[in-house]
Amino acid sequence: MDATRIELFETLARLLEYPGGTANPGGDVIDMRSLLAATGDAAAATGFEAFATAFGALSADRREELFTRTFDINPVCSLEVGWHIFGETYDRGGMLVKLRGLMRERGVAESVELPDHLTQTLRLFVHLDDKRARDLAVGFIEPAVRKMRDAFDDDGNPYLALLTTVATLVETTRAAHDEVLQDA
To answer: Phi/psi of residue 152, each to 5°?
Structure first.
C-alpha cells in the first residue's frame, strides 16, 4: 500500500477518535483534504467536505459532546466493529485475538482501544495483504459501518458524513485489492 493511502487511513482514524485532549482535529481536517485531493477520490472528498464544514463550525466543547453523544452513549453507533458483527459473544473474543495478532505481525501500534475499534481496524486494513484486507473489509468493516450509518437518527450529525467517507474509502481500497486478486 502506498504511503499516501496509509496516511489517509491514519488521518481518518484520528478523526474518529475523541476530539479532546491532545487531538488536533483542525489539522487533521486540513491533512485529510490534501490527502483526498492526492488520491483523486471525488466521492470521498465530497462526503468529507460535508463533515469538515459542519465539524469546523463547532466549538471544542460541542465537538467533544457530539462525539460522546454519537459514539459512547448510543450503542448502535459504537465504534467497536466486532460488537456490530458478533455482539458480546465468544466469537468476538476470537476476533479480538486474531486482530491483535495481525496488528503485531504488521507493526500496527495498539492504542487504549480494543483491536476491533474502528480506528484500529482502519489502521490495520491498509497494512494487510490483498486477501486479508479484502476479508477484513467485507466481513467486518463494511457491514459494521453500514449498521452504524443506518442507525443514525440525526441526519445533521457531521459524523454521519464522516462514516460515509469511511465507507467510500474502504470500498474503493477493497475494490483495488479485488482487482489484484482477480488478476492473480
So the answer is: -65, 130
28-66 confidence digits (pLDDT tens): 999 999 999 999 999 999 999 999 999 999 999 999 999
Written as nine digits, the cell of 103 is 496488528
Helical residues (DSSP H) of 57-157, grouped into ranges: 60-67, 81-86, 90-106, 118-125, 130-136, 142-151
Residue type, 48: F
Report field, pTM of the whole predicted structure over 0.90: yes
Distance CA 4, CA 118 (A): 20
Q: Please state, in angstroms and rounded to a whole number, the distance separating the CA atoms of residues 134 and 83.
A: 20
Query: Cell 491514519 identifies what position?
Result: 10
- Report yes or no: 159 and 130 within 8 Å, Cβ to Cβ: no
Buried/exposed 83-113: b ≥16 CB within 10 Å, e otherwise: bbbbeeeeebeebbeebbebbeeeebeeeee
Find out whether 30 and 17 touch, Cβ atoms under 8 Å.
Answer: no
